[in-house]
């Protein structure tokens, strides 16, 4: 994610949209008051439109990503709740549990393995 949270990126994209809208309003006012040449007005308006479309597409992508993450997190939470409710430990391979719970495994040269689980919990097994 580059250090920024998804909510921060969404806010920045929304701010970009708001900025472009205000710039477009100012351009329209300027055109109405000072009579900016039509060609100059059209060029600026087209540039603002393109900038707006890019920011809007980015905002929609980020919102969709956030929704997807929320849905997956909800699914993981329900799955973990079901695992906790089990009367006995899981004694057979469960690929769904593995994929939902483990984000990374590193096997070191000494034969130890480090497991990183969702939520950044780590366990090293020797």
Question: Rough shape?
Answer: elongated
Tell me the domain tally.
2
Low-confidence stretches: none
The structural class is: mainly alpha
The helix content is 55-70%
User: Helix and strand string, N-terminal first?
Assistant: HHHEEE
Give the strand content.
5-15%
Q: Order of strands in the sheet with the most strands?
A: 1-2-3
Mean pLDDT: 86
Describe the largest sheet.
3 strands, antiparallel
Q: Number of helical segments?
A: 3
N→C terminal distance: 32 Å
Please state the CA-atom Rg, rounded to the nearest Å. 25 Å
Please provide the count of β strands. 3
Question: What's a quick, concise take on this entry?
Answer:
The protein has 126 residues and is mainly α. The protein contains three helices and three strands, in the order H-H-H-E-E-E. It has two domains: 1-87; 89-126, no CATH class.
Can you tell me about this structure?
The protein is mostly helical. The protein folds into 2 domains: 1-87; 89-126, no CATH class. It contains 3 helices and 3 strands. It has helices spanning 6-34, 38-84, 95-101; strands spanning 102-107, 113-117, 122-125. A 3-stranded antiparallel beta sheet has the order 1-2-3. The model has no long low-confidence stretch (mean pLDDT 86).
């Amino acid at each position: 994610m580059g250090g920024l949270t998804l909510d921060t990126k969404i806010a920045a994209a929304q701010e970009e949209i708001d900025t472009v809208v205000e710039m477009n309003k100012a351009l329209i006012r300027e055109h109405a008051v000072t009579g900016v040449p039509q060609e100059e007005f059209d060029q600026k308006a087209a540039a603002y439109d393109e900038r707006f479309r890019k920011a809007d597409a980015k905002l929609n992508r980020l919102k969709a990503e956030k929704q997807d993450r929320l849905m997956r997190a909800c699914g993981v939470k329900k799955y973990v709740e079901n695992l906790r409710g089990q009367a006995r430990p899981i004694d057979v391979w469960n690929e769904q549990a593995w994929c939902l719970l483990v984000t990374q495994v590193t096997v070191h040269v000494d034969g130890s393995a480090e497991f990183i689980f969702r939520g950044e919990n780590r366990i090293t097994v020797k």
